[in-house]
Amino acid sequence: MLQFIEYPKCSTCRKAKAELTQLGLDFEAVDIVKETPSQKELLQWMTNSDLEIKSFFNTSGIKYRELGLKDKVSQFSAEEAAELLSTDGMLIKRPLLVRDNQILQVGYRKQYAELKL
């Protein structure tokens, strides 16, 4: 089953969720603030994807700016990034689309219909 990890108040998340519903896909919606992914999950997603570590960070978020992460993220190991991200769901780029503990997409760059779910 698909996991759709979202921040329910995020307009991009709502748009992505509507597309999943329109495509008739079964998914479990998970609130990223109430159920922040664990360090172990994040590390697995990072190491099993071909994505840069920075792509897992919500670079437009307030918390990201407050922590001055712009110049630090590129120096993080996957372990360091996963540890930091697991402390606050608002640091994580969203929505996340996960199946069988594998990241299918981080953010909503392209429509889900293109992923051939």
Can you describe this structure?
There is one protein chain. This protein is an alpha+beta fold. It contains 4 helices and 4 strands. It has helices at 11-22, 39-47, 62-66, 78-85; strands at 2-6, 27-31, 96-99, 102-106. Helix 2 (39-47) packs across helix 4 (78-85). The mean pLDDT is 94.
Which key features would you list for this structure?
4-stranded mixed beta sheet; 16% strand; 117 residues; alpha+beta; 4 strands
Shape: globular
Largest sheet: 4 strands, mixed
Q: Uncertain spans, ≥5 residues at pLDDT below 50?
A: none
User: What helical percentage do the residues reach?
Assistant: 25-40%
> What topology, given as strand order, has the largest sheet?
2-1-3-4
Secondary structure tally: strands: 4
Report the portion of residues in β strands.
15-25%
What's the end-to-end separation, in Å?
11 Å
SSE order in H/E notation?
EHEHHHEE
Give the helix tally: 4
Overall pLDDT metric: 94
- C-alpha Rg, in Å? 14 Å
Structural class: alpha+beta
SSE topology:
Blueprint: E1 2-6, H1 11-22, E2 27-31, H2 39-47, H3 62-66, H4 78-85, E3 96-99, E4 102-106
Parallel strand pairs: 1-2
Antiparallel strand pairs: 1-3, 3-4
Helix pairs in contact: 2-4
Q: How would you summarize what this structure contains?
A:
By secondary structure, the protein is of the alpha+beta class. 29% of the residues lie in helices and 16% in strands.
